[in-house]
Structure formats: C-alpha cells, structure tokens
Amino acid sequence: MAPYYFGNKALVTTAKLLLLLTVVTLTARELSAAGYGDEAMKARHETWMAAEKAHRYEVFNANAHLVDRSNADGGRKYRLATNQFADMTSDEFMCMHTGFKPLSSSSGVNKLPGFNYENFTLSEDDQHAFDWRQQGAVTGVKNQGTCGCCWAFSAVAAVEGINQIVTGRLLSLSEQQLLDCSIDGRTNSCKRGGNMNNAFRYIINNGGITTYGFQNVPADETSLVMAVANQLVSVGIDASSQNFHMYSGGIMTADACGPTVKLDHAMTVIGYGTANDETLYWPLKNQWGVKWSIGGFMMLERGTNACGIAMAASYPIP
Ligand SMILES: *[C@@H]1O[C@H](CO)[C@@H](O)[C@H](O)[C@H]1NC(C)=O
C-alpha cells in the first residue's frame, strides 16, 4: 500500500508541477503579449513621457509668461528666471520644497519670556546695514531637496550662527539629525513639515550647542532689526507665490507675495541692508541649493512686513 501510495503522490505532484509550468509559461507569454516585453514597455514609457511632457509644457508656458511679464515691468526691483523649478506648479513646489508649520500656542517648554534685545541700540556704523556673512557666521547654502524640512535648515542656520558668534568657530551642523530624531514626529517631519521652535527645543533637550532656550521676536520689523544685529534669526515666511520659486535677484517686494499672508516656509535672516536707491531689505539665507537665485540667497523688502517676515521670528539663546 505504502509504495503505491507514495508512487501515486509522486505522480500527482509531477502532474501538478507540469500544470504549474504550463500556467507559468502561458502567463509569461500572455504578459509579454500584453506589453511586458522590452520593446512594448519602451513604447509604453514613451507614451507616458509624452503625456507628462505635454503637461510640463503647459506649466512651463504659464510660468515663462509670468517671468517675462514681471521682468518687462520696469517698476519692479526684482528679477525672475525660468530656473530649475519653472515646470512645476505652485502647489507641487510648495509640497516638495517648503514645510513650515506655525505653532498655534505662543507658550511652550524652553521658550523664554520677553525679548532680550528690547533695549538694544544700533551703533552708528550699523544703522543702515549689517551682514553676518561678513562676520563669518553663515555656512554655505544647503539644499533641503524634496523634503518639507525648511524648519530644520532655518533652525540649524540660526544655531550655527550663534555658535560662531559665541565660540568664534563656524561649524556646519546636521539637519538630518533633527529630521531623524525630532521630538515630535507627528508635526516635525519631512512629509508634514515642522517648526523651528520645536527644533530648538530638540537641540536644547539633547545637550546641543543651544542649551538655554529660545525667544520669539515681537512681531514687528524694528524688533527684528534689534535681534538680527545680535544674531541670526529664524523666520516663517509666505513663499507660496511663483515669484519666490523663480526669483533670480534684486529686492523682492511685498507685491510678489501672496495677497493674504500664510506662513508656509522658513528661512534665516542673516542681516539687514539699505540699497543705493534707499530701499530697505533683508538678506535671507534659503535652502533651495546654490543654483536658486544668486548663490541661494535672496533680498526681501524691509519695512512693509513683506511676506509676513516678522510674524514668526525666533532665535536660540546659547
Ligand atoms: C529694558 O529696559 C527696561 C527699563 O529700564 C527694563 O525694565 C527691562 O528689564 C529692560 N529689558 C532688558 C531685556 O534688559
């Protein structure tokens, strides 16, 4: 009985295997016919690319018109260019390259009350302009890539700055650590964006260079000048306008921002300045790489709270 049984089982197994082989062969042949062969897949990819290219062309066309119209307007203090972001819609750009989340509550752990620089008076030399780049407190422009982590770069730039001011050493610090180890993964992350104050908090709690706390700057540009004269300041900003994405130099004025200011991006204020024609501006460090604008920095009009620059400003206290 036993040999017969095993023989039978072997027979059944062989039959099953044959059936399976047939099915597999048929499936492969069928799939190949349906388009999984190299040639068919290439054709399918070409069709896909043609559709994507047509869509990108439409977006580029609209953006190129926007750039040319703006540059043809002799009254504008800033210039735009069909740069590497010129085939992206504003929404696509905002999803990929910004990531600032305003905090609803003004209180919070490690946030110190008051404003340390409220009684500060600018020296005669520093009345019109000051730039932390000239003091060696600004590291090279970085690139946040396709990650909503502007908040990490802005916070790190402010911490790199205060570290240089206090110790005299300019160290490039890690945004990646903030991304990996953020205290609140739900609100501070690559996908969902975050806030610089949470980043300062993380650095403080983990014995980083900033061990004391951070303060918010009162929401006016006079206070912001006082703070910036003392150290680099992290700011939330409305960068939703395509003018921002395709900015290529000059002083960006308030008309280039959205009609209603909604803080959605973070940058670092690295000084304040006055142009030859007396236009006041903020030099800002961004993190969209060095190909954006001129070397990755920008100038934004000062004195009109352009793009909400003074609305969510904060700095770490060493
Ligand atoms: C600023 O000056 C006022 C009045 O003298 C004083 O009460 C306040 O503590 C000062 N603020 C700081 C941060 O030193």
UniProtKB/TrEMBL annotation:
Pfam families named in the record: Inhibitor_I29 (PF08246), Peptidase_C1 (PF00112)
InterPro entries: Papain-like_cys_pep_sf, Pept_cys_AS, Pept_his_AS, Peptidase_C1A, Peptidase_C1A_C, Peptidase_C1A_papain-like, Prot_inhib_I29
Peptidase C1A papain C-terminal domain boundaries: 126-317
GO terms classed as biological process: proteolysis
UniProt cross-references to PROSITE patterns, sorted A to Z: THIOL_PROTEASE_CYS, THIOL_PROTEASE_HIS
Highest rank taxon of the organism: Eukaryota
Keywords annotated in UniProt: Disulfide bond, Signal
Residue ranges of every copy of the Cathepsin propeptide inhibitor domain listed in the record: 45-93
Protein name as annotated: Peptidase C1A papain C-terminal domain-containing protein
Taxonomic classification: Eukaryota, Viridiplantae, Streptophyta, Embryophyta, Tracheophyta
An example Gene Ontology molecular-function term: cysteine-type peptidase activity
Family: Belongs to the peptidase C1 family.
